[in-house]
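A reminder from the course coordinator: this example appears on the midterm review sheet, so study it carefully.

Given structure:
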């Protein structure tokens, strides 16, 4: 597959995944079999795409690798945390109310240093988690040359976290180890993913049907370990049909600038989404005396998710043009 076509389908994959992330933040209680299915295309797909794009051969040594990752991930994490921390101190706590006022001003700083943001920039757990995943995978890839052994190692780390109920570790290492198998599989099977055909109807149907079966079994099973095994299997299985779909769209529609721009700036959308959605909730309560995002009219959630991304892109244009240092870029 030509490099340009590969880039196009990745743009669609990243755009669709960030849309699902925002959609589930409009209403975290979206339930049902359809939403269980869509959750597989949210965070697992994000980490699969990230693993696919990771190229260890680009980095001669660990220092260069870490320097690049800090610039691309930790610099935005710092700036957006600082900006929203200042806003939180000045007006945010007052708007939210008494419960927020009881939180110590030092708590968000501690969360920032631990890499476990919750109060100020909760969605950025993904950024610190991705930083941890890439660092861990880099070291494992350097130490372990066998692909089979590498997969076994990442799965073993997954179940260690699960067995010992490790949570809230610094820099989201616990979450990083849970998503590490997705990242590793995508990186190891990079060549196979490249050759997935968008018109392989039989392959797509098999991928889709097996995923549905695994999800159904998962929903009727109460064993924690089996649930997690089925989650990994279904998340990896659906990626075949997901990538084929993205390639199909890229073949039929081609490159669209806004799709590419959304994919390239999802780090900004992650930072702004909760605040934009929060404003929508406030407006909804003022106008209708109810939070419309919590209703059963899921069309509203879809529209708000699209609006949230579009507003984020307005900020992305401003940041890229006038303050690119916020996202670790140099002035054009």
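Designed residues:
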């Amino acid at each position: 597959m030509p490099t340009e076509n590969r880039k196009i389908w990745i743009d669609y994959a990243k755009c669709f995944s960030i849309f699902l992330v925002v959609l589930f933040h409009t209403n975290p209680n979206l339930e049902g079999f359809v939403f269980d299915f869509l959750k597989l295309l949210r965070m697992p797909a994000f980490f699969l795409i990230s693993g696919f794009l990771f190229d260890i051969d680009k980095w001669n040594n660990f220092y260069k690798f870490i320097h690049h990752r800090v610039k691309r991930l930790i610099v935005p994490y710092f700036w957006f945390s600082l900006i929203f921390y200042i806003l939180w101190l000045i007006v945010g706590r007052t708007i939210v109310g008494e419960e927020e006022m009881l939180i110590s001003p030092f708590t968000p700083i501690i969360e920032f240093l631990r890499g476990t943001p919750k109060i100020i920039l909760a969605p950025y757990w993904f950024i610190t988690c991705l930083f941890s995943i890439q660092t861990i995978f880099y070291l494992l890839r350097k130490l372990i040359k066998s692909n089979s052994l590498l997969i076994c190692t990442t799965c073993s780390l997954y179940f260690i976290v699960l067995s010992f109920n490790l949570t809230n570790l610094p820099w989201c290492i616990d979450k990083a180890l849970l998503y590490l198998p997705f990242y590793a599989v995508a990186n190891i099977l990079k060549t196979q993913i490249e050759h997935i055909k968008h018109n392989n109807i039989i392959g797509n149907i098999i991928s889709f049907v097996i995923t549905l079966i695994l999800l159904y079994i998962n929903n009727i099973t109460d064993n924690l370990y089996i649930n997690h095994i089925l989650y990994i299997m279904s998340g990896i299985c659906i990626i075949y049909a997901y990538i084929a779909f993205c390639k199909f769209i890229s073949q039929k529609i081609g490159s669209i600038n806004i799709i590419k721009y959304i994919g390239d700036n999802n780090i900004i959308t992650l930072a702004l989404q909760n605040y934009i959605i929060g404003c929508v909730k406030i407006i909804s309560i003022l106008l209708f005396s109810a939070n419309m995002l919590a209703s059963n009219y899921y069309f509203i959630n879809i529209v708000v998710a699209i609006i949230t991304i579009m507003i984020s892109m307005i900020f992305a244009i401003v940041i890229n043009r006038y303050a690119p240092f916020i996202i670790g870029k140099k002035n054009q």
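The CA atoms of residues 11 and 257 lie 10 Å apart. The radius of gyration is 20 Å.
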